[in-house]
Design a protein that fits this description.
Blueprint lengths: L2 H8 L1 H20 L2 H31 L8 H33 L9 H30 L2 H4 L17
Helix pairs in contact: 1-3, 2-3, 2-5, 3-4, 4-5
Length: 167
């Protein structure tokens, strides 16, 4: 297993957790149900916790593919810049969500979080989701919109696929 493969495997966790956590958070804001709030806050906390492994493996993956002919360095650099910002955004929303989660689990607190905390977490979650979506979009462009893959260098011969049975 190499760094690019590990990054592609891990990077989906903060994305999915951010999407689900923000969706359930908005639902909790409307429905005013304690269970929805606990789930949303826990999910956003996990999104914050999963951000660093995705960022770390992404840094290692960028070093591993830096000299590959099929990678456009400017696309990797742009994604890396966005990923650093996404890491900060997810750590912030994760920390605030962890505080809200901790506060809700204390014995003296019943019901939903106070209004100031509801709106703080909601605004941070929507903001961090927008940052994460942009980062994911830029990461997808590294391969999906890459002109080098459509037009490989002259003389390039693709290696045989080891999974294809011989004829």
């Amino acid at each position: 297993m190499d760094w690019p493969y590990l990054h592609v495997t891990i990077n989906h966790f903060p994305i999915i957790l951010s999407v689900v956590g923000t969706f359930v958070l908005i639902l909790a804001l409307v429905a005013k149900r304690r269970g929805l709030w606990l789930y949303a806050l826990a999910t956003l906390t996990l999104a914050g916790l999963s951000a660093y492994p995705a960022d770390f493996t992404g840094d290692e993956a960028s070093h591993a593919v830096r000299d590959s002919w099929w990678v456009v360095r400017s696309a990797v650099h742009e994604h890396d810049q966005a990923a650093s910002f996404a890491l900060a955004a997810l750590l912030i929303v994760g920390a605030v969500s962890a505080y809200g989660w901790w506060r809700m689990l204390r014995k003296e607190t019943a019901g939903v979080p106070p209004k100031w905390l509801q709106w703080t977490v909601t605004l941070l979650a929507v903001w961090s989701l927008s940052v994460v979506v942009r980062t994911a979009y830029l990461g997808g462009k590294i391969l999906h919109d890459n002109p080098n893959i459509v037009n490989p260098p002259p003389g390039f011969v693709a290696p045989p696929n080891p999974r294809t049975p011989p004829r």
